[in-house]
Amino acid sequence: MASLFENNRNYVLGDNELNLIGDRDKLAQWRHKGMGPAFYRLGRKIIYRGADLNAWAEANRVDPAKAGRD
Hints:
Protein name: MerR family transcriptional regulator
Radius of gyration: 13 Å
Largest sheet: 3 strands, antiparallel
Shape: globular
Number of helices: 2
Number of strands: 3
Order of helices and strands: EHEEH
Structural class: alpha+beta
Organism: Primorskyibacter flagellatus
């Protein structure tokens, strides 16, 4: 599995790397709906672990070569 994010890094809202999966508003919508990558809420601060972001991205990977071959 290729890593889009550094596994040993924590990402906070405002980090440009998070724009890869969605802007600040989209991430807020996902958190409100219980969707998206796992996160920590420490007071008002939202923190995403790189390993969690990579796991979420891998779980949402689409391989067109295998689509429709169930």
